[in-house]
């Protein structure tokens, strides 16, 4: 396991540099350089991957549609949410392309109509006829609200 030009040829031990043709330093430099390039490879791969519009985030101007049941995908009007009833689960929909953004779980929201006089002053500013909207994802542990 030694070569004729090896300075270690008189010794009876195995020398990786002679056997594989590179030293430990060369190997470590190559591994270190490759490791530095990995984050950039991931960014390039993500940039070239086709983006699914159903995974995009909620944007201002989106319409809300029912998330479940027999009305799934139908636009929600204020009249669809009765006073003091169970909240309705909804997803945003792009009003131009009509793509429902349901593949990003943080987009799911709860709509509920409450008595306007029971809302705080700050909440009442953002409520429409007592209709309020909250995230359907728990802020404590990130689980889905049911």
Please, could you describe this protein's structure?
- By secondary structure, the chain is an alpha+beta fold.
- The chain has 2 domains: 49 residues, no CATH class; 82 residues, 3-layer Sandwich (Rieske Iron-sulfur Protein).
- The chain has 3 helices and 4 strands; from the N terminus they run H-H-E-E-E-H-E.
- The chain has a 4-stranded antiparallel beta sheet with strand order 1-2-3-4, with no helix packed on it.
- This is Rieske domain-containing protein.
In short:
By secondary structure, this protein is α+β, with helices and mostly antiparallel strands.
Please describe the structure with a list of short key phrases separated by commas or semicolons.
146 residues; 3 helices; 2 domains; single chain; Rieske_2Fe-2S_sf; Rieske Iron-sulfur Protein; alpha+beta; Rieske domain-containing protein; 2 iron, 2 sulfur cluster binding
**Helix run count:** 3
Number of E-type strands: 4
Oligomer: single chain
How much is the average pLDDT?
83
Could you say which structural class the secondary elements and strand pairing correspond to? Answer: alpha+beta
Q: Report strand order across the widest sheet.
A: 1-2-3-4
Low-confidence stretches: none
The biggest beta sheet is recorded as: 4 strands, antiparallel
Strand residues, percent: 5-15%
Number of domains: 2
Termini gap: 68 Å
Helical residue percent? 10-25%
The CATH architecture assignment of the largest domain turns out to be: 3-layer Sandwich
- SSE succession: HHEEEHE
User: What is the class of the largest domain in the CATH system?
Assistant: Mainly Beta
For CATH, the homologous superfamily of the largest domain is named as Rieske [2Fe-2S] iron-sulphur domain
User: What Rg, in angstroms, do the CA atoms define?
Assistant: 30 Å
Overall body shape: elongated
Return the CATH topology of the largest domain: Rieske Iron-sulfur Protein
InterPro entries: Rieske_2Fe-2S_sf
Protein name: Rieske domain-containing protein
GO molecular function: 2 iron, 2 sulfur cluster binding
